[in-house]
Amino acid sequence: MIKEFKPVILFLGKFLILYFVLNIIYGYYVESFKNKPDPMTEYVSRQTAKVISLFNDTGKEIKTSSSDKGQYVYINKGDHSVLSVYEGCNGLNVFIVFVSFVLSFRPPQKEWIWFIPMGLIVIHIFNLGRIGLLFFITQHYPDQMYFMHKFGFTAIIYLSVFGLWWWWVTGKKFQLSTRKGSERV
């Protein structure tokens, strides 16, 4: 009976080990900045501010400022702070779940060399959009902020991860390159 479930047990074992090891490293990374935001949170916040600026027609500058009292970055509209971006919003934890799954599902092969970076970029873009939309919701629908942050956009970002996993699991049907003389379905 154990032989029947051996692939599943191996997958779960690899996944859990990778996930916990990467999360421990991430925890040390975050803690190393004490009471300041980590560079990834600052980077994601600045990028989000740039994306928001593309859609800003109010004439007020969209910029970021770091907190002196915590591990978060403010995204400001003019002189008004609209949204606080905490370390958990930087996408690194979602990256960890994604990478752990991809590396655990199949033995290492050359496909993951392009798939993991491409997946991280897709997740990052979804995360920038998520934070940008939360910025908009905070201004125009503040009573919806909690629900959208906690459930709506969390579901969307994890659906993007599940979509990438699905692509990885069904891999041969959706390869990016085609070989001359061979057809891919």
TrEMBL record:
Pfam families assigned: Exosortase_EpsH
Key words of the record: Cell membrane, Hydrolase, Membrane, Protease, Transmembrane, Transmembrane helix
This protein's record includes keyword Cell membrane: yes
Keyword Kinase: no
Domain of life: Bacteria
Protein's cellular compartments: Cell membrane
Transmembrane regions listed in the UniProt entry: 7-29, 83-105, 112-137, 149-169
Primary location group: membrane
Membrane topology qualifier: Multi-pass membrane protein
Protein name: Exosortase family protein XrtF
Organism: Mangrovivirga halotolerans
Gene: xrtF
